[in-house]
Amino acid sequence: MQKRRKISLVRKAKCSWSPRRKLKLNDIKRNLWRRNRSYTLLIAEHTA
């Protein structure tokens, strides 16, 4: 009985955690991109 309860808790936690994590990852990516935009443009010009 205890095992089953733990599994359901883990499943619930995963469901609520996944989208939030995705949002956080997107935020991090966006911030990184914003910070490195000039840098990436420089590299793109250099390689092009």
In short:
The protein is 94% helix and 0% strand.
Q: Could you give the distance between the termini?
A: 63 Å
The average pLDDT score comes to 69
Helix content: over 70%
Taken from the alpha-carbon principal axes, the silhouette is: rod-shaped
Number of domains: 1
Classification by helices and strands: mainly alpha
Percent of residues in beta strands?
Answer: under 5%
Largest sheet: none
Instruction: List low-pLDDT spans.
Output: none
Radius of gyration, whole Å:
20 Å
Number of helical stretches of at least 4 residues:
2
Compressed to H and E, one letter per element, the order equals HH
SS elements, strand count: 0
List keywords for this structure.
mainly alpha; 48 residues; 2 helices
List the helices and strands and how they pair.
Elements: H1 2-35, H2 37-47
Helix pairs in contact: 1-2
Account of the protein in words:
The protein is mainly alpha-helical and 48 residues long. It has one domain (2-47). 94% of the residues lie in helices and 0% in strands. The chain contains 2 helices and no strands. The chain has helices spanning 2-35, 37-47. It is rod-shaped.
